[in-house]
Design brief:
The complex is a heterodimer.
Chain A (H helix, E strand, L loop, with lengths): L1 E7 L2 H12 L2 H4 L2 E7 L22 H4 L5 E3 L1
Parallel strand pairs in A: 1-2, 1-3
Chain B lengths: L17 E4 L4 H10 L9 E4 L3 H9 L5 E2 L5 H7 L14 E3 L5 H20 L6 H5 L4 H6 L23 H13 L9 H4 L3 H6 L6
Parallel strand pairs in B: 1-2, 1-3
Classes of the chains: A alpha/beta, B mainly alpha.
Amino acid sequence: MKKVVSEVSGTVFSLPWLIARDQGLFEAEGIDMEFVRARPSGAVTHTENPEEVNPILGHVAFEEARVSIYRA
Amino acid sequence: MVRPDSPHNYPGTLGHRPIAVQFHAGSHYVALRLLEGYLPKEKIKLVHYGSPQQRFEAMWNGEVDACVVMEPWIALAEKLGCKAVCEGHYLGAENASDDMDEATFAAINRAVAKAVDMLNADKRKYLHYLIEDPRMAAALQKYGGLTPEDFHLPRLRYSYTTPYTDEIVEDTYHWMVRWGLLTGAACSADLVDNRVCSAADTPAAD
């Protein structure tokens, strides 16, 4: 089995992935899929300036190379 | 989305009014794409509020005039009587790291494609994932909860993973540069590499 770690941010983006996990579709393809939750990259501030917001958003684990794939 | 008692019924009256989005994410970009058809750039007032729940609550509590959200927050808002003043869709993206090999990506996509078929055959059967997500369940209950029957199914659109076409990449790139979301010094070919996805898009031999 090939181990793959995937980030889940908005559930609506990952709905087929969650179905694939629970229906054994990843396993049937030889994929050991592990999901980790996205987490905020910093304190949320209310701002009208996009430059004040880290564009990494919740995809910290991907940026740190702890997950291989995410959806958005 | 706007509150049930909001005077806003279409995007053209939202000039200079705060609209909650998450900067650098879909809600930010789709808001600009929708509003630019009704308002000049200088009248569009987007405010970063973070997560969909924070955006929804900012709208519901009256901190902002409108919020941009996705499901299940649209279904919740509509159940509470909120009004959609405009609605847009965008392409979701699979973002893979450099260590994702073609065979693995293809295997993942075959599994996901089967799940897409199952989902499209009976969408309501799988909506419990959106309702029971532990990050959202408590918040949804706070506002009365949701059931699968509360969702408008045609809004949920799932398709097979395919590479972005050059035309989509170029059109999106030029739109982002025009809005100052990308520097014009970057080239779209530098930002998108479809090699793994193109290979993975090839059906399996079985």
